[in-house]
Amino acid sequence: MVSINPESKSRAVNREVLSELIKLHGKTSLGGKLPAYDGRKSLYTAGSLPFESEEFSVTLVDPEKKDKEKAEREYKITILIAGRTDLYHLQQFLKGRQRDMPQETIQVLDVVLRESPSWNYVTVSRSFFSTTFGHRGDIGEGLECWRGYYQSLCPTQMGLSLNIDISATSFFKPVTVVQFVLEFLNLRDASRPLTDRDRVKIKKALRGVRVETNHQEDQIRRYKITGITPVPMSQLTFPVDERGTRMSVVQYFMQRYKYNLQYTSWPCLQSGSDARPVYLPMEACKIVEGQRYSKKLNDKQVTNILRATCQRPQQREQSIREMVLHNKYAEDKFAQEFGINVCSDLVSVPARVLPPPMLRYHDSGKEKTCVPSVGQWNMINKVGRPPSIEKAFTRFGVPALKNIPTIIFGADVTPPPPGEDSASSVAAVVASMDWPEITKYSGLVSAQPHRQEIIENLFSVTKDPQRGNVNGGMIRELLIAFRRKTGRRPERILFYRDGVSEGQFSHVLLHEMDAIRKACASLEEGYMPPVTFVVVQKRHHTRLCPEVHGRRDMTDKSGNILPGTVVDLMICHPTEFDFYLCSHAGIQGTSRPTHYHVLYDENHFTADALQSLTNNLCYTYARCTRVVSVVPPAYYAHLAAFCVRYYVEGDRSNGGSTPGSSGQAAIAREGPVEVRQLPKIKDNVKDVMFYC
């Protein structure tokens, strides 16, 4: 364990401190070890250090500061042996002889393989970015796209596997702040003052961004932006002595630096604290290169990133191969230190292509069928104009569900967009209402604490002065609705849960299975239908490419693997029930399979049965005559949460009035966003799939 005093929140500063320590004491006090460091509290070595606890002192010099005393900063480092990692448990886990995953051991090896790129590239979560990777494209409004790669060490049936994928994200362009503001606000010139709305937008975009000054020829200084001044620079003054004499920023720059400021109608950037602010004219500052833009991108920017990075499977595979060769894992000194060997070849895995289901639809009371071809089908001239929304849905029977009344749930939690630090999350749950067809769903939504993954309102008990304890919650309400619609109570539950990270699997399962159990028991004593709980993951970096590119019997028109391709060997979990299913046909780029992880299965599905059922359900999506990439109940839950958030809060980026907002404009504003309960969905809306 490592502690650094004074403490820094910057991983880069911490790494510099440890690097200096290793230079000074690596061959002596550290026993010649080459440590791997996570940038925070953890330091790992291959073998024991020659001490249990030791204190060190190093001095870093800031080359940007001329005054030597101010430029030097001393750091005290304490290294304490916190434990020793045993690879035996990892070996047992990978062989399937141990159920508990030794997460700490895997983390150590992951940190080791991330050590070299952490020094050489810009780190964003589990990805690394650099301008040396080629593409660097302007995506509009002061931002640019950098290419990079994602890297993660994960346990699989093959052993430890290194997941590598191409990635891209948005960065601030290294331009003057004036140029950024012009591009960000789509202004032609800087002659007109900024409106309050513009000022708030700029403050939100630039808060936390590092800039460097250019008004001193012999010295470049860096600052972190904390805000924007509320008044234009022409009106901005500050005290210059103890008597309270004030001077304007414009006067100060002319007297001190002989710098004639031009854009005096614009506000200044502010650094430091409100008690001791530092005012920085925008024209005297340039944005430091290599800073990621973490706020929400607009549609145009997203399109530009996708256009710049979209690659067909053959191109993407080649890019991944080139990235692996570029990284030179065989020459990585940290990997060598810890005895880690990385194979540079992609792995070949066995796969199956599931057949599409036979689709049934009704036309003038007559039942007809059609067979999808490569993930799509044509309904033109097959149905007359329907008199209602409900009759517009084609109906597909799912054979595996015909014998036992089955309800299929989809659930998701949608967090607020990036940059909204206090807005509530929105949870949505949908459930099928038309067994055995499984095509119509009712949906409910609920607000819950900011970025909380567990769904709170699946089951609830409230106290009523007259009635005492009153049972409620979304699961209970949907179970009641199913019985009202079908005349049967569900005897089997299939729960597809989206929006769960791997670290939260056990936590979410424990809480939400308990809520499902209580909701069932509240309806009827002893009512415990068997439950299958499946986590749906779309945000991962596993890509499946054809083993032979260009073969028509192995690919669709886009060059992707065929719809219905399923993989459940080699790259899946060593002991648990999971599989990758690419149910859809590719349109552009490389298809991303959906990862289904079965956390609990009281229905005792075989792998084939659950995979086929999930694939068949993907053909029942109501919006289009194509098979979709995510099982529809999970898809619908995501759409329901998104739609309700949009109707209640509005699109904050467009500034216009939105449906359901009482005519008030949804404008950018300072301060925390008010967290409020969502309006109750009316009964006549719940049953019409309002999110489609």
TrEMBL record:
GO terms for molecular function: RNA binding. SMART domains: DUF1785, PAZ, Piwi. InterPro entries: ArgoL1, ArgoL2, Argonaute_N, PAZ_dom, PAZ_dom_sf, Piwi, RNaseH-like_sf, RNaseH_sf. It comes from the Eukaryota. The keyword Transport does not apply. Keywords: RNA-mediated gene silencing. This is Protein argonaute MEL1. It comes from Aegilops tauschii subsp. strangulata.
